[in-house]
């Protein structure tokens, strides 16, 4: 099953990585591919609304229950369904028209958001209905992400995929910083009903980006969705050492280098500043990733992308270790802190924010090359399934990391998990790169899975 020329752009010729003197983000993908530009723009606008709803749902559940555990239930309730739909969505993307798969998933996501808004407008205060609808929304978004990422290589030449990944990094950074801020302002001023309604309107931009795509059928041998298709994908992954190594590196980084669950306790007990400190530390990583993407212009000429992934993740581990050192020093100095920002340890908060921003930048570099490797080294008829596995990795990894940090803090001080985790990341990634020669020698001019 293949595309006809009128349905999708023909694969462009291979080209040497382009060397740019300009350090700023390469906007060439937006200029050379109108379909990619519309898809990227729609994702950026709709993503802000999606982040607004995520934050607003958490605020509403806390308002209804007064329980932090109930708020955490949103993620826990959706975790297993997201994993299932990440894998199944990838199979759908490898079996059917990817434009149609993404469009149907977008309709489901939009409908679930509209129902959440309807609940708010009609004053139906049901935590379980919010759990159910946010789970449906998360599953649909997972299918959209797996499908959309598998579409990019059909819209752009191979040498522009790193630039496209950097542009997506900007999108994610803007979503994570602007969306929650808008949600807080809107919930406080106009309420939950209007906040959800704004998301319903913003999500319409996603339809514009998806609906305007050409028909994109998978190329090569196609398997129907099911256990056989999943087995076929698993067999491929067993023969793909570079892709496996990329997944493993990411899992290690997210498991041992994810300190986000520490932030509330850090804001209350170590650095002070309470919720304001939590917001600053949370935003720092996203700001670092966004700035990195804005200055990503020269990443397109990096040829040895396996080494680049290894080094950037090791730097990520180093900065997480530095975050642990900042907390250790703040603890040893014994500075009295309080929940109000005026009584907080401001120098330590600044240092912590800087190292977390640097960690976000390093992680973004890794993400750019891991995404590029998936899109170039994996055959077109396997991209959906491998992107589905990637979604499972990035969804499950941070949650396993939350469990690691939470369990360790039962027996150790708050500074210990990031300090130990940073060391584990540095050493483990060095071993993976050392003993996976094909990953270390991965050549973007001759991409092999």
UniProtKB/TrEMBL annotation:
<feature type="transmembrane region" description="Helical">
    <location>
        <begin position="269"/>
        <end position="295"/>
    </location>
</feature>
<feature type="transmembrane region" description="Helical">
    <location>
        <begin position="128"/>
        <end position="148"/>
    </location>
</feature>
<feature type="transmembrane region" description="Helical">
    <location>
        <begin position="315"/>
        <end position="335"/>
    </location>
</feature>
<dbReference type="Pfam" id="PF05977">
    <property type="entry name" value="MFS_3"/>
</dbReference>
<feature type="transmembrane region" description="Helical">
    <location>
        <begin position="341"/>
        <end position="362"/>
    </location>
</feature>
<feature type="transmembrane region" description="Helical">
    <location>
        <begin position="194"/>
        <end position="214"/>
    </location>
</feature>
<dbReference type="InterPro" id="IPR036259">
    <property type="entry name" value="MFS_trans_sf"/>
</dbReference>
<feature type="transmembrane region" description="Helical">
    <location>
        <begin position="68"/>
        <end position="88"/>
    </location>
</feature>
<protein>
    <submittedName>
        <fullName>MFS transporter</fullName>
    </submittedName>
</protein>
<feature type="transmembrane region" description="Helical">
    <location>
        <begin position="39"/>
        <end position="62"/>
    </location>
</feature>
<keyword id="KW-0472">Membrane</keyword>
<feature type="transmembrane region" description="Helical">
    <location>
        <begin position="383"/>
        <end position="401"/>
    </location>
</feature>
<keyword id="KW-1133">Transmembrane helix</keyword>
<dbReference type="InterPro" id="IPR010290">
    <property type="entry name" value="TM_effector"/>
</dbReference>
<feature type="transmembrane region" description="Helical">
    <location>
        <begin position="407"/>
        <end position="433"/>
    </location>
</feature>
<feature type="domain" description="Major facilitator superfamily (MFS) profile">
    <location>
        <begin position="198"/>
        <end position="449"/>
    </location>
</feature>
<keyword id="KW-0813">Transport</keyword>
<keyword id="KW-1003">Cell membrane</keyword>
<dbReference type="InterPro" id="IPR020846">
    <property type="entry name" value="MFS_dom"/>
</dbReference>
<keyword id="KW-0812">Transmembrane</keyword>
<feature type="transmembrane region" description="Helical">
    <location>
        <begin position="160"/>
        <end position="188"/>
    </location>
</feature>
<feature type="transmembrane region" description="Helical">
    <location>
        <begin position="100"/>
        <end position="122"/>
    </location>
</feature>
């Amino acid at each position: 099953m293949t595309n006809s020329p009128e349905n999708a752009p023909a694969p462009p010729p291979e080209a040497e990585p382009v060397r740019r003197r300009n350090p700023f983000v390469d906007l060439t993908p937006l200029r050379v591919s109108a379909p990619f530009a519309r898809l990227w723009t729609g994702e950026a606008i709709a993503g802000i609304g999606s982040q607004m709803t995520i934050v607003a749902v958490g605020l509403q559940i806390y308002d209804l229950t007064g329980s932090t555990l109930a708020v955490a239930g949103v993620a826990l309730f959706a975790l297993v369904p997201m994993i299932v739909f990440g894998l199944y969505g990838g199979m759908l993307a490898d079996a059917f028209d990817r434009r149609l798969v993404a469009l149907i998933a977008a309709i489901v996501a939009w409908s679930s958001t509209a129902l959440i808004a309807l609940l708010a407008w009609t004053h139906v205060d049901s935590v379980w209905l919010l759990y159910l609808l946010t789970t449906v929304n998360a599953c649909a978004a997972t299918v959209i992400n797996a499908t959309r990422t598998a579409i990019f290589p059909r819209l752009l030449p191979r040498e522009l995929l790193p630039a496209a990944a950097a542009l997506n990094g900007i999108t994610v950074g803007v979503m994570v910083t602007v969306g929650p801020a808008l949600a807080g302002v809107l919930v406080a001023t106009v309420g939950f009903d209007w906040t959800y309604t704004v998301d319903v309107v913003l999500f319409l931009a996603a339809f514009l980006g998806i609906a305007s795509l050409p028909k994109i059928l998978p190329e090569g041998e196609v398997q129907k969705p099911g256990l056989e298709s999943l087995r076929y994908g698993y067999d491929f992954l067993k023969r793909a050492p570079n892709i496996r190594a990329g997944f493993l590196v990411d899992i290690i980084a997210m498991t041992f280098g994810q300190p986000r669950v520490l932030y509330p306790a850090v804001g209350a007990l170590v650095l002070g500043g309470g919720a304001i400190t939590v917001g600053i530390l949370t935003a720092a990583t996203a700001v670092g990733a966004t700035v990195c993407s804005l200055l990503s212009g020269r990443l397109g000429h990096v040829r040895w992308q396996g080494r680049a992934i290894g080094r950037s993740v090791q730097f990520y581990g180093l900065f997480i270790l530095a975050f642990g050192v900042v907390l250790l020093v703040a603890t040893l100095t014994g500075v009295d802190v309080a929940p109000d920002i005026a009584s907080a340890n401001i120098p330590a908060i600044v240092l912590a924010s800087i190292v977390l921003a640097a960690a976000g930048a390093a992680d973004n570099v890794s993400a750019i090359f891991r995404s590029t490797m998936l899109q170039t080294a994996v055959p077109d008829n396997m991209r959906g399934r491998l992107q589905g596995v990637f979604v499972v990795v990035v969804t499950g990894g941070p949650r396993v990391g939350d469990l690691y940090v939470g369990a360790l803090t039962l027996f150790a001080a708050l500074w210990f998990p990031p300090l130990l985790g940073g060391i584990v990341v540095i050493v483990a990634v060095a071993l993976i790169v050392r003993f996976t020669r094909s990953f270390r020698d991965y050549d973007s001019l001759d991409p092999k899975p």
